Amino acid sequence: MADKTTRIMCPKLTCRKILLVPSTSRGKTVRCRACGTTIRVPGPVAKAPAPAPDEASSTDAA
Is 36 inside any structural domain? Predict the structure, then answer.
């Protein structure tokens, strides 16, 4: 089975090539083959923590 890849775009305005990098490269830096710009691959997406139910609904009317 093939490794999963992540697509990122070169941030250099004159290049803007789409790069396919392996998922194992998340959090590391890679180099664009077209222009040589160093690019940091975003890390894994973290889920936002759910708010505690008591914090959102607690109101004191004293």
Answer: yes
Q: Is 21 within the bounds of a domain?
A: yes
For residue 28, what are the contacts with CB-CB under 8 A and spacing of at least 6? Answer: 40, 41
- The C-alpha atoms of residue 29 and residue 44 are separated, in whole angstroms, by 14
Angle formed at CA 48 by CA 45 and CA 18, multiple of 5 degrees = 25
Burial class of 49 by CB neighbour count within 10 A (0 to 12, 13 to 18, 19+): exposed
Output the pTM of the full model.
0.60
pLDDT of residue 1: 42
Alpha helices (H) along the chain: 53-57
- Give the pLDDT confidence of 21-61 residue by residue, as tens digits: 998 999 999 999 999 999 999 887 767 676 767 655 555 55
